[in-house]
Amino acid sequence: MDHSGHGMTTDLPPFTLGRGLEFSPDLFFLIGCLTALGLYGWGVVRLRRRGDAWPVSRTVFFTVGVLSVALMMCTKLNDYGMVMFSVHMVQHMVISMLSPILLLLGAPVTLALRALPVAGRGSLGPRELLLKLLHSRYMKVITHPAFTISMFIASLYGLYFSPLFDFLMGSKAGHIGMMVHFLMVGLVFFWPIMGVDPGPHRPGYVMRMLELFAGMPFHAFFGIAMMMASQPLVDAYRNPPASLGIDALADQNAAGGIAWAFSEIPSVIVLIALVYQWYHSEQRQAIRKDRAADRDGDKELEAYNAYLASLRSR
């Protein structure tokens, strides 16, 4: 297959879903996905061997999350994404807004903390280094809403409406770096909102919902702006190969429609996950209160009744 000096595929036939799903691995992401699955599987096996349970649902979520990244980057969707703005936008949306949610629901940090061995006294092992990172000032900064929401928005407007996108698309390393950035931004944005892993910034459920909806309108506006543009916005997709049989502006409009429509999907998934977590949190809290009441003879209720009796006597 012929590639130009900028790493762009120039002889692809017109896009169809079947052609897009053909296996065409990017070595960086293939190794990364296999490594992630291997490490996660090692952690689950280690827990099971010592008799500890690990929810099957978390394993499924994490596995599907990794496979979603592999689907975007290790098939010909990645090749078409180099020359078709609409396919690139599908990659961007999945890797930044769907894959992170699935990966976070797999609770990989919690699994690592439970599976990694504790280092000897006075020494730092992988588990201790992970805990140190989780409690670091750096983590407090990058998980704060002021940072996560700003980065989420800047990754759209600052990238596509500046020369930076064309620069990154000009090399294979730049393209890989951009996709890794999309994934990391999604992980950092959704982790404080709906991640089940421990983190330095964990507000109440109402605040989490507000954080979620604070970023989504900007995502929709970005898609609408692309749909309404009267000329191609980025040079990388200004002159698509003739073999594709597409119009650059029509393809850009399709990319904008994908970005606009996709902003709703993660919102619904995260909202369902938040409501589910909230419900179970309330259930656990009620059970803890019942157990405490059983232990102390419901002294809290007795104290409240005594307070009401004192009011009546007055």
Task: Briefly summarize what is shown.
The chain is mainly alpha-helical and 314 residues long.
The beta-strand count equals 0
Figure out the total of helices.
15
Mind describing the biggest β-sheet?
none
Query: pLDDT under 50 segments (min length 5)?
Result: 1-8
- Give the overall average pLDDT: 84
Percent helix range: over 70%
Shape: globular
Instruction: Please state roughly what percent of the residues sit in beta strands, choosing from under 5%, 5-15%, 15-25%, 25-35%, 35-45% or over 45%.
Output: under 5%
Q: Would you tell me the structural class of the helices and strands? A: mainly alpha
Secondary-structure element pattern, one letter each:
HHHHHHHHHHHHHHH
Radius of gyration: 24 Å
Cα end-to-end separation: 91 Å
Key features?
314 residues, mainly alpha, single chain, globular, 72% helix, disordered N terminus
Report on this structure.
- With 314 residues, the protein is an all-alpha fold.
- Helix content is 72%, strand content 0%.
- The chain has 15 helices and no strands.
- It has helices at residues 17-20, 27-49, 56-73, 76-81, 85-105, 108-115, 126-134, 137-142, 145-160, 164-169, 172-194, 205-228, 248-262, 264-296, 299-313.
- Helix 9 (145-160) runs parallel beside helix 12 (205-228).
- The protein is globular, with a radius of gyration of 24 Å.
- The termini are far apart.
- Mean pLDDT is 84; it is low at 1-8.
Q: How do the helices and strands line up, and which of them pair or pack?
A:
Elements lengths: L16 H4 L6 H23 L6 H18 L2 H6 L3 H21 L2 H8 L10 H9 L2 H6 L2 H16 L3 H6 L2 H23 L10 H24 L19 H15 L1 H33 L2 H15 L1
Helix pairs in contact: 2-3, 2-6, 3-5, 5-11, 5-13, 9-11, 9-12, 11-12, 12-13, 12-14
